[in-house]
Amino acid sequence: MFQMTVHNLYIFDRNGACLHYSEWNRKKQAGISKQEEFKLMYGMLFSIRSFVSKMSPLDMREGFQCFQTSRYKLHFYETPTGLKFIMNTDLSVPNARETLHQIYSTLYVDYIVKNPLCSLGDPLQSDLFSARLDTFIKNLPYFNPRAA
Amino acid sequence: MTVHNLYIFDRNGACLHYSEWNRKKQAGISKQEEFKLMYGMLFSIRSFVSKMSPLDMREGFQCFQTSRYKLHFYETPTGLKFIMNTDLSVPNARETLHQIYSTLYVDYIVKNPLCSLGDPLQSDLFSARLDTFIKNLPYFNPRAA
C-alpha cells in the first residue's frame, strides 16, 4: 500500500530560471549539483512538451500534464504567464494540476507578485512564501511525511 | 474510449511494427523520422526519469498523459519496447502490452521460422491477430475521440 506523499516542488519562470525549490521527502539525490539539476529538469520538460505535441494523435488542447513510473509521479502545470510548477508525488495522486494552480493563485500571487520587495525573475527570497508553501503542502490530504 | 496507435521497437531502436486505428493528426514528418523521434525521446525520458527520481526506482517510466491522450510504455526483459497511445480513460496498459508481447509476438513472430529477429515484422497473421486483439479490448471504440 503506498503512503501518500509529496516529494519535492520546483518553480521556474518563463526563461528557465529556477525561482524556488523545496523538498519534503526525497530519498535519492540526482548525483549532480542543484544548478545542473534545475537545468536538466527545465530542459527535459521543454523537450517532453514539444515531443508530446508533435506525436499527438489528436489536436492538443493543453499539452503535457504528468508522467508516472512504478514509484513516483511528476505533475506539470504552466500558468498563462509562463511560470512552470513541477511537483513529484507518490502514485496515489491522480492529477495535481488543481493543487499547483492553487499554489500559484493563492501563494505565489499573494506573497510574491504583490510583494514590492520581490523582483520578478529573481529567485524567490520571501520567507513568508516558503513558510506558507510548506504549510500548504503539509496540509494536503495526500501528504504524509513518514511515507515512501 | 480508444486506442490511437501502437509502436514496437527492438532493443537497437529499429521499429519492428507500427499500426494506427484512430489517429486524427499526423506528426508532420516522415514515418522514419517519426520512429527515430519516438525511440530517441523515450530513451531520453527514461534516463531522465531515473536520474530525477526522489526514490530508488524499481521499474522506471510507465506512461505520461496530456489533456487529450496517454502514452503507455512497456519494455520486455529482452529489450523489446511497446508504445501505445490511448485516450485518457485507460489507467495503465502495461498488462495489455505484456499480453501483446507474450501471446501475439512470442507466438507469431518468435516461434515463426520465417521471421528473423531484428527485421520489421512481416507476418500478416501477426498484424491480423494484433488488429483483432486491439479491437476486442474493453476500451476500444473505433468511432471515438
From TrEMBL, chain B:
Compartments in which it is found: Endoplasmic reticulum; Golgi apparatus, cis-Golgi network
Domain of life of the source: Eukaryota
Species of provenance: Gadus morhua (Atlantic cod)
Main location: endoplasmic reticulum
A GO CC annotation given for this chain: Golgi apparatus
Name the record gives this protein: Trafficking protein particle complex subunit
Keywords per UniProt: Endoplasmic reticulum, ER-Golgi transport, Golgi apparatus, Transport
PANTHER family associated with the record: TRAFFICKING PROTEIN PARTICLE COMPLEX SUBUNIT, TRAFFICKING PROTEIN PARTICLE COMPLEX SUBUNIT 1
Gene3D superfamilies: 3.30.450.70
Sequence similarity: Belongs to the TRAPP small subunits family. BET5 subfamily.
Self-association state and partner proteins as the record states: Part of the multisubunit transport protein particle (TRAPP) complex.
GO BP term, example: endoplasmic reticulum to Golgi vesicle-mediated transport
